[in-house]
Design brief:
5 helices; 3% strand; elongated; Hypothetical Protein Ta1238, Chain: A; mainly alpha; 54% helix; two-stranded antiparallel sheet
Length: 189
């Protein structure tokens, strides 16, 4: 386990940071951008959880996702190397597969869509949509990184499935309230 006794080190004062391998890179390195955006998504899911108190199943699901996002951040912060000294923490195929099961489970009770959904409705749904957009950005940054460096393909798959699940969860939360807020093309022309 990680033990932090000191929060600041001053090591990043010149615009560089360390990957888990110890390699120093610029703070705007694609790898840092990718895992930093995963961290941002995790923080937004923390905001969602403020609005899911009392909904034990949903809150438990989001708690598990938050933990998995730390795993994903560790995966992205650890460059692929041949014969590593210690086995790195990597996203496993079972993790995005689990997300697929949750998507199917929550989506089964929803009505089919007849228009695009606006990111609105309840506070929880709006925050779930915000988390979804941040996860999509993390996915774009991760795929950009994958064009330059070897990464775990399950990391991209996890992000792709997670954004889908967050969309479905937003619809689920709204279905329990007033329903989806739908886009009306050209409504105010």
């Amino acid at each position: 386990m990680v033990q932090l006794t000191r929060i600041y080190t001053g090591g990043g004062d010149k615009g560089r940071t360390s990957l888990s391998s110890g390699k120093r890179v610029p703070k705007h390195d694609l790898r840092v951008e990718a895992y930093g955006t995963v961290d941002e998504a995790n923080a937004v899911i923390g905001l969602v959880r403020l609005h899911t108190a009392g909904q034990e199943a949903l809150d438990g699901l989001l708690s598990r996702i938050q933990n998995d996002l730390f795993d994903l951040g560790a995966d992205l912060a650890t460059p692929e190397v041949e014969a590593p000294e210690f086995p790195p923490l990597r996203i496993l195929a079972s993790q995005p597969t689990w997300l697929e099961g949750e998507i199917d489970r929550y989506n089964a009770a929803l009505q089919p869509l007849k228009s695009f959904v606006l990111p609105a409705g309840t506070a929880a749904a709006a925050h779930l949509h915000l988390a979804r957009t941040v996860v999509r950005r993390a996915e774009r940054e991760t795929t950009r990184l994958a064009e330059r460096e070897a990464i775990n393909p399950e990391a991209v798959r996890y992000l792709n499935r997670l954004s889908d699940l967050l969309f479905v969860l937003a619809r689920h939360v709204n279905a329990e309230a007033a329903g989806d807020v739908l886009w009306v093309p050209g409504q105010h022309r």
